[in-house]
Amino acid sequence: MLYPALFAYLFLSRLVTGQDYCRYQSSVPLQNATDVPRRFGMVLFRGADPLDFMGPDEALFQLGRSYEIDRAFIAETLEPITSEPQLATMNKHNSSTWTQILPTHTFDTAPELDVLFVPGGGGTRSPNLNATIDFVRATFPKVQYLFTVCTGAMVAAKAGLLDGKSATTNKQAWNTVVPTGPETNWIGDARWVVDGNIWTSSGVAAGIDAMIAFLECTWGHAVTKNVTAEMEYIVHPDSHDDPFAVYPNGTYIDPNVVS
Q: Burial code of 36-47, b = ≥16 C-beta within 10 A, e = fewer?
């Protein structure tokens, strides 16, 4: 049986935004199905948070064990991407816990995609992201879905893709991200938000929940159940069950205080 809260939310969100409904509970895609997203492109840049993309990528990895799935790591160049911030002030303790990953494509050689994925992290605040923002803006009309995690929503907002849309972002960066999208309806009490073909998630680990919800909607329950079983992942099906929720002004909602 489908996770009731998850399916109800996804179904209603599609109804409200005028998009296609989510896949029927009992529907299992064929190996050669053409109505499912198979080509994912993850945009990388210096200072991207590792779990922002590696968490959702784990779900794609598991999906790829059962179906043909293509995932590209796309960056401005093919030089290794590090999660280490550019500014020494953001590494006050001189740590060496940074992740490095090799892009598979550049912005100029990016393959055709079904899903454009933008992670967050301290690097989204960099003044050197113009090429990344331009790529996201230019690629969006060519894909079926845009998916952002954490402050990746800031990149999408700066590209003008969230104007007139509902979205969410990392609550700890709320007051930094929200001003970059003055025409966006920012939702402060959501683990993830769906508006048409744009999916935005809250911070870091929330991206896993959002990706599971995305796969549930596009690939169906049976396939997604297998993915989460392989991950040994406990599903968080309610997008509004957000312990990190904020008020519109960016102050935290204390769950222990009854209004």
A: bbbbbbbbbbbb
